[in-house]
Design a protein that fits this description.
The complex is a heterodimer of chains A (about 450) and B (about 550).
Chain A (H helix, E strand, L loop, with lengths): L3 E7 L5 E6 L8 H11 L8 E4 L2 E8 L2 E7 L5 H19 L4 H6 L1 H11 E2 L2 E2 L4 H4 L14 H6 L34 E14 L5 E14 L6 E6 L3 E3 L11 E3 L1 E4 L8 H4 L1 E4 L4 E11 L8 E9 L5 E9 L6 E10 L6 E6 L5 E5 L4 E10 L3 E9 L14 E8 L8 E7 L7 E15 L2
Parallel strand pairs in A: 8-25, 11-12
Antiparallel strand pairs in A: 1-2, 1-5, 3-4, 4-5, 6-7, 8-9, 9-15, 10-14, 10-24, 13-15, 16-17, 17-22, 18-21, 18-23, 19-22, 20-21, 23-25
Chain B lengths: L4 H14 L1 H5 L1 H13 L5 H11 L7 H15 L4 H14 L4 H10 L1 H8 L4 H17 L19 H14 L5 H11 L5 H15 L3 H12 L4 H17 L4 H7 L3 H4 L3 H14 L6 H10 L7 H17 L1 H17 L4 H15 L2 H8 L9 E2 L19 H4 L13 H8 L11 H21 L15 H10 L3 E5 L7 E10 L6 E10 L7 H23 L1
Antiparallel strand pairs in B: 1-2, 2-3, 3-4
Helix pairs in contact in B: 1-3, 1-4, 3-5, 4-6, 5-6, 8-9, 9-10, 10-12, 11-12, 12-13, 12-14, 13-14, 14-17, 17-19, 18-19, 18-20, 19-20, 19-21, 19-22, 20-21
Classes of the chains: A mainly beta (about 450), B mainly alpha (about 550).
């Protein structure tokens, strides 16, 4: 039987933000016990499950906060972790964003949510469709809306092409406010992909996995059916092929249970009635079969100069299509233990590089990197007593980046129709982004 | 809570299952169960609850069981990990008497579990990894081809990396060993010391089956001359040599110069153990020990002093001329000046032992050089599913790191062995699991022999009388691999062998299995007879392979 005995939210500094006891099985001092256990451990994150006598703490970290449930040993870890993640998603939906401040300002709302979501430790519902009938408290938002609402309006109120881009903050507002703010009905469809790539030292692609999902964030007061068309030449599975030319291939995909797939096999159309807030409509994977070249390649030269310094000459090439660009690219290059200082020559002033001693790495940041271009940098690292063996310590280079308006698999949303047609002007946004989950280039 | 579809279903099911009237009528009972399974309007919490409650229901017939299984098949591959886990748990408990079905369920669940391993939530990844470790205990080859999914991402926290490495070690096979070792090599210089250590010991674990490649990496790491890495490598090498004595040659040449780099006690202890065991092959061994003996006054660690005593004694046995003087000084210091009674007692014991004569000392000190248990070289035996099914989908698997990859605070392997195996005075020095394993192996063996009727008995009067390790190494040279062998000194001594040949013209390959039995009546001497024997064996195998293909 899965039950949650207590549930609490702690800030990263250990402040008690929310505490709720459902079953009275243990005192509130367990919060301190938990935080002591967390701080007693070194390392970046304490293990997910910790136990204190016969009480078990399961926690997840979301938005820099600890979301902790105490439970008995025979509970399903999958269910509890999924529940805590879902709870944090609900809080994000209701409060607009997920941060210490947002939780503090909306504590009444969150307690109300916790009352409805769990009863005597048993999960009741986490569906925002059901919950919206019970939640009365208005969210307090830490940010005035007017600021980003303004950015949506073009010059002299004209609807220019420029203003057709949704600001990234547009989807971070509470779902409930749509009710009485005149109901600005909007729907966001985000196609988010995460790449994990390993490129060998000889430039061979050793591993290339993409995990993606389509997330729908809905701010429409009344539920209406959404029809979403994906690429027609989309093929699912390893053997199936559809269409000629540039087919989009996924190896595995799964859908939210509310999605109706009647038209999926013939026309690649998904139908669903989204509930308010955010939900993942489709998840998919592609392994070892990128349709295009990997976005970045690195050509490193590493040597020891006559003055005993470590010389690293890095040439980084971006193989994206020329019109697209990667943003917030950062390359982390591990350097030998005992490195002291760094001098660098970078090709443009907007880049920067620094030696982070704590991580023993040189971090090279490039704010914007257009497709089809190449950047180079020369790093000189002062390492006392550098031996030729130490060059082996210049380990695999890790790249992190974001590719806006681009999907690695090529998956696209062809159209997004709402039916019946909404009374007011319903705005529909489709956004694409690819993140680097782990992009490692061995040197 | 009136507003819940899922809650209603659960309540209905629970009421039905505890109602004696319904229970007594199998048909109604069955209908209730099937009705609830078909309910699709439950949310994921309701569904996992239903699946949990269903575990109490025992189907009356096999048909009904398969009925339920096929109805639940879609939940088994559900994209929601809680449902997938609850369904698998139900499947395993329903099919406890049908191992083939359970196995099929585990194979079917592979996709969703792998997807959960790549989930956006770190915590979910961790839970999935821990459960994959459970699954691998029963089907070691389940995920061999998906090893790349367990490569670590640089941003992952150390506890996920550690689990991933444990999984990688389990997945190693002939095809992927190079890739996995390459990947692990990259983690050895990780900025997080725990991760680096875990990677080094993972390479050591792989070394038990692929010793050449692993040792190459490990000895390469010694070249970095960094205290923490060197310490971890020396400890790993010690543990590896204890299990695979055939790689001691490579090891002893790599040990030179380590003592200057080592800082911590654990690493120094491991080095001392190695020097004591293989001191006759490391030319600088006495001088290394001398440095430690000169510094023994300032040494604070008890374990270090004990290890130093034993190692010096062992080295004295094989290189008396160089060691005698320093052994005298060490014993003198430990008996006259040492404050700790443990160390003093040990020193006194050794001193009196030396009085009994060199043969006696040799008998006491030069016992086992390697793991005395039977060397099974094909990895861990597959455990039955029932061993872990009760902890599946509970918090249990998430709690502990398995003990074997815990590199911290360990003494010499022989102490470890005596701790782990309290029943070492069993006649064959085998522990029960291995006995069973051997039993099973022998049974399968005879089944195979019967099936193919390929018994070819070769009698050799000239049987080698050298150590099994030498024989083993020699046979590896001619590409004959060992599946299992019995401990040295036991009679009759047995080895199970296999070799396989791949013919260039056809894609088919031939597998040859062999059993070597030594009953202990031979008296001949080493090398020439061994050669003769091996040539007999190879010719036999060659002729066999040409006949069979």
């Amino acid at each position: 039987m899965m039950r949650i005995s207590q549930l609490f939210i702690l800030s990263s500094k250990g402040d008690h933000l929310i505490y709720k006891d459902y079953r009275g099985e243990a005192g509130s001092d367990v919060v301190n016990v938990f935080y002591e256990k967390v701080t007693a451990l070194t390392g970046d994150q304490p293990p997910v499950v910790m136990s204190h006598r016969d009480l078990h703490f399961v926690h997840v970290r979301q938005g820099g906060l600890y979301w902790v449930a105490t439970t008995t040993e025979d509970s399903s870890p999958f269910a509890i972790i999924e529940f805590l993640n879902r709870l944090s998603a609900l809080v994000r939906d209701y409060c607009g964003s997920l941060s210490e401040k947002a939780v503090q300002m909306n504590f009444a709302l969150i307690y109300e949510l916790l009352d409805e979501v769990l009863d005597y430790g048993y999960i009741q519902t986490t569906s925002s469709d059901v919950l919206k009938n019970f939640i009365q408290t208005e969210a307090v938002s830490s940010r005035p809306f007017s600021l980003f609402d303004l950015s949506n309006v073009g010059l002299f109120g004209a609807e220019t092409q420029q203003s057709k881009v949704a600001p990234s903050s547009a989807a971070t507002r509470p779902i409930q406010s749509s009710r009485d703010q005149g109901g600005k009905s909007e729907i966001f469809v985000d196609v988010i992909e995460r790449m994990s790539v390993v490129i060998g030292s000889n430039g061979v692609l050793l591993k290339a996995d993409v995990e993606g999902e389509i997330r729908v964030k809905c701010y429409m007061p009344s539920c209406s059916e959404v029809r979403m068309g994906l690429n027609e030449e989309l093929s699912v599975g390893r053997s199936q092929l559809r269409g000629y030319g540039a087919a989009v291939r996924l190896h595995e995909c799964s859908f939210h249970q509310a999605v109706q797939l009647d038209d999926f096999h013939s026309h690649r159309i998904l139908r669903l009635c989204p509930s308010q807030g955010e939900q993942t409509v489709m998840q998919y994977q592609l392994s070892d079969d990128l349709p295009s070249a990997p976005p970045f390649r690195l050509f490193p030269t590493i040597e020891r100069d006559s003055a005993g310094r470590l010389l690293m000459y890095m040439k980084l090439r971006c193989d994206l299509p020329p019109k697209s660009a990667a943003v917030s690219v950062s390359a982390s290059i591990p350097v030998p233990r005992g490195s002291v200082s760094l001098s660098q020559e970078l090709s443009s002033p907007d880049q920067n590089a620094e030696l982070i001693l704590q991580n023993r790495a040189v971090v090279w940041r490039i704010p914007r990197f257009s497709g089809g271009t190449q950047l180079s940098a020369l790093f000189k690292v002062e390492v006392p007593g550098l031996s030729s063996a130490s060059l082996l310590e210049v380990g695999p280079v890790g790249l992190s980046f974001e590719l806006p308006k681009l999907t690695a698999t090529g998956l696209q949303v062809r159209f997004l129709r709402l039916s019946p047609v909404q009374p007011g002007p319903a705005q529909r946004w489709v956004r694409y982004v690819t993140h680097s989950d782990s992009y490692i280039i061995r040197v | 809570m009136p507003y819940l579809g899922g809650k209603e279903a659960v309540r209905e099911l629970r009421r039905a299952l505890s109602n004696p009237n319904i229970q007594s009528d199998p048909l109604r009972y069955r209908n209730v169960v099937l009705k609830v399974i078909r309910l699709k309007e439950c949310d994921i919490w309701g569904q996992s609850e239903v699946l949990r409650v269903l575990q109490r229901y025992r189907p009356q017939s096999e048909d009904e069981l398969f009925d339920i299984l096929s109805l639940l098949d879609s939940s088994l591959v559900s994209p929601h990990p809680p449902i997938m886990a609850a369904t698998l748990s139900l499947f395993l408990s329903l099919c406890s008497s049908l191992p083939a079905v359970s196995k099929a369920a585990l194979e079917r669940v592979r996709g969703p579990l792998l997807a959960a391993c790549g989930s956006g939530s770190r915590e979910m990844r961790f839970a999935a990894l821990c459960h994959i470790q459970l699954l691998l205990r029963s089907i070691p080859g389940l995920l061999g081809e998906h090893y790349k999914r367990f490569f670590c991402s640089y941003a992952e926290p150390a506890f996920i990396k550690r689990r991933k490495m444990q999984v990688l070690v389990e997945l190693v096979n002939d095809e992927n060993v190079v890739m996995i070792l390459d990947e692990l090599k990259g983690y050895c210089t990780d900025v997080n010391d725990d991760t680096a250590q875990a990677a080094i010991s993972a390479i050591g674990r792989i070394g038990r089956s692929y010793s050449d490649k692993s040792l190459e990496i490990l000895t390469g790491l010694l070249g970095l001359k960094q205290d923490q890495i060197t310490s971890a490598v020396v400890q790993t090498i010690r543990d590896l040599v204890w299990v695979c004595p055939q790689c001691s040659d490579t090891v002893s040449s790599a040990l030179e110069g380590c003592e200057e780099v080592l800082q911590d006690c654990q690493g120094k202890q491991a080095l001392l153990w190695l020097l004591g065991m293989y001191g006759e092959r490391v030319s600088s061994a006495p001088y290394t020990l001398e440095v430690y003996i000169d510094g023994v006054r300032s040494e604070t660690s008890l374990e270090m002093k004990m290890e130093l005593l034993t190692s010096t004694m062992r080295l004295f046995l094989c290189r008396p001329a160089e060691t005698q003087d320093m052994l005298g000084r060490l014993l003198h210091y430990c008996i006259e000046e040492e404050g700790d009674m443990c160390v003093r007692g040990q020193a006194l014991l050794y001193y009196r032992l030396l009085h009994c004569g060199i043969e006696e000392t040799r008998n006491v000190l030069q016992g086992q050089r390697s793991d005395p248990s039977m060397g099974v070289l094909i990895g861990r035996p597959a455990e039955p599913i029932s061993q872990w099914v009760s902890s599946f989908n509970t918090l249990e698997p998430l709690k502990y790191c398995s003990a074997e990859t815990e590199p911290a605070s360990r003494g010499s392997p022989e102490h470890l062995a005596s701790v782990l195996k309290p029943n070492t005075d069993l006649p064959d020095n085998l522990d029960c699991g291995q006995l069973q394993m051997l039993d099973q192996l022998t049974k399968t063996w005879f089944k195979l022999v019967k099936k193919y009727k390929l018994v070819e008995t070769i009698r050799c009067t000239a049987v080698p009388h050298c150590s099994p390790q030498n024989l083993h190494a020699a046979m590896q040279l001619v590409n004959i691999q060992t599946i299992a062998f019995s401990p040295s000194h036991s009679l009759p001594w047995k080895v199970f062998l296999y070799t396989h040949t791949l013919r260039a013209d056809t894609s088919s390959s031939t597998l040859i299995l062999g059993e070597l039995l030594y009953t202990g009546e031979a008296h001949q001497q080493y090398v020439s007879t061994l050669r003769a024997f091996l040539s007999v064996l190879t010719t036999v195998i060659h002729t066999l392979s040409s006949e069979m293909a």
